Amino acid sequence: MASRLNTDALISQLTGIVGNKHLLTGHDAAPYGKDWTGKYIAQPLAVVRPGTTREVSQILRLASDTATPVVPVAGNTGLVGGTHAPDAVMLSVERMNKIQDIRADARIAIVQAGVVLSHLHAAADNLGLSFPLFFGARGTAMIGGVLSTNAGGSNVLRYGNARALCLGLEVVLADGEVMNLMSELHKDNSGYDLKDLFIGAEGTLGIITAAVLKLVAKPQAYATAMVAATSLADALTLLNRLQEATGGMVEAFEYMPRSYLRRLGKVRPDLVPPLGLDQNCTILLELGATAARDTTPTADGSIPVNDLLETALAEMVENGLATDAVVARSQAQRQNMWAIREVAAEITFGRIPRLDTDVAVAVDKVSTFLDAVLAGLSEIDLDAETITVAHLGDGNLHFSVWPTADDQGLMDRILTMIEDVTVGLGGSFSAEHGIGLSKLDSMRRHKDPVALAAMARIKRALDPKGIMNPGKVVP
């Protein structure tokens, strides 16, 4: 690598680009060096906060000329160490927070990378539209980070993850060149789909500065319920029947086993599940309806989509596929049901030692996965405890283990077992949280070596000096 400017000279030039107010060092920069998990803590060389794409370009041109590592950061809500930046320049997109345009007829939003996800939700909502990507950190997560990690969440079942909701990007490459991929088109076969290279790349190939995002019609009525299913197989039967009966209106289908509910009772006794804490297979499901026939109150005041859900759940209980079900009767009841699910990170991360996984298997193999990993865990650490929550509709499980000892060797054996089961079932060891630092060993063990070699070649081609978020994603 080329020799770097001395620190003072580098800081001086960065300050010249963004101004004194937006160049942070020392104590002022330290908060940016701690991620949400608290596991990855480092002192960045500096934090630079550009306000325009031009400033991002100038920063990266300087970084390229001086071989200075640059780590992009948005809301810093990641879980895999993707923003770990010891002695690197952190580039925060927080000032690039404008919703530049929302075109209701085209159902697109043109936004900068620093737009907070919940702010986009509110802006779309005001126009009767929705940006249908929802997860617990939406109040702090920013679009640049959401796209860079290809974030998922509870609505992937109906709308897909971040990649499926993006039409176009603006990206600043490692040498400072600005690539305009801001397509507003649903069909564009003009060569390689470069956009998808940068979505999910975690800032290792360039920095996303703006995006064209898809919007959808805002549901005019929701039908939300908690169901005590007899088994995961029966829960999938319910999901498939609901999809057929509603024409694909199921927006969320979330699984919470007994281990989750009991932990909830200990940590958040204020959140009371309507079916109690001792159900073996609780499902939170939600339908979202837009058509007047499904959302207009009938003569008796009932909402058709609610009636449809109640009928389906009654049949399920009658047929022995579930033991009980409760449909939300008010917005407050709906919010309480969702709060029970969205508190997952809080109740999981509050205990250590802890091993977290974020895996995906085919939806009909979730039960097989759980049986296999629980059996494997009993052979490695008999008294270890687990907590699981899953986006059952798309096969994504957050399976966490509290081992009996804070021993890295023990946790490595547990992780290896979980990943072996996952890959053996044709699944992925990273469903929606990305790779960052924490899953580099998993990439070495399980990613196809030809695919890894191709990724490394792409990295070298787009970032020949290796300055973009070095050490992440590609082993």
What can be said about this structure in brief?
This protein has 17 helices and 19 strands. With 475 residues, the chain is α+β, with helices and mostly antiparallel strands.
Would you kindly provide a written description of the structure presented here, covering whatever features stand out?
The chain is 35% helix and 21% strand. The chain has helices at residues 7-18, 26-29, 53-66, 117-125, 143-148, 156-159, 195-198, 232-246, 258-267, 292-295, 304-318, 331-342, 344-349, 366-380, 408-424, 440-446, 449-462; strands at residues 23-24, 46-48, 70-73, 89-92, 99-103, 108-112, 129-130, 166-173, 178-181, 206-214, 216-217, 221-229, 250-257, 281-289, 322-327, 355-356, 359-360, 385-391, 396-402. The protein is α+β, with helices and mostly antiparallel strands. Strands 12, 13, 14, 15, 16, 17, 18 and 19 form an 8-stranded antiparallel beta sheet that branches. The chain has a 5-stranded antiparallel beta sheet with strand order 5-6-10-8-9, with helices on both faces. A hairpin with a 4-residue loop joins strand 5 and strand 6 (108-112). The protein is globular and about 75 Å long. It contains 17 helices and 19 strands. Helix 1 runs antiparallel to helix 3 (53-66). It has 4 domains: 7-93, Uridine Diphospho-n-acetylenolpyruvylglucosamine Reductase, domain 2 (2-Layer Sandwich), CATH 3.30.43.10; 99-217, Uridine Diphospho-n-acetylenolpyruvylglucosamine Reductase, domain 3, CATH 3.30.465; 221-344, 2-Layer Sandwich (Alpha-Beta Plaits), CATH 3.30.70; 351-434, Alpha-Beta Plaits (2-Layer Sandwich), CATH 3.30.70.2740.
